[in-house]
Design a protein that fits this description.
Length: about 190
Amino acid sequence: MTRFLLLTLGALALHPAAATAQTAPVSSPAAAQTAPALAWTDRTRALPDELRRLPVGLTLWHSPNPIYPEPNPAVPGGYVWKHSTSVRAETADLEIVTCGSYIWYSAAGWQTNLHETPAEFAELFNCPGGKLKKGVTYTFARNYRYAASTKQLYGGDALWFIIAKDAQGRLYKGYGLIETEAEPQASK
């Protein structure tokens, strides 16, 4: 089972995704009690529940990927993972329904991270009205993750997704995996 998931996640990395900064993992029992509901109920499948069975109609990718923390000049002792996320509608003009991400930082697998409204997507991706024109690329240029100190550096993968609908109301998905590393990249 683990081998299947690793192979599947490797394949997902070849088809990249997009959205906002990854949040920190749940670190205490009290926090776990207030954590969002489980988003990945069928452990024999690679994708979280809301993404399964929807046809792919968008291409999502992150650049660079993987990403490594680097010192944050705005916060002494802090770190930032810098990347952008882009999306392109492939099947038709589409309207955003939702976007967000799941994170994988432990043996628990995919955990809900965040969901963005169509208005939030429109602002982040510079996409007026949340309406994607077929073949046009929209980019969230500063999709950064931050850590206040070295104690907050952790690795994990994030599965960004977008769900959008066409003029007939048919739903489509796009998704992409970003590898977030815990240690700064070694000098070349």
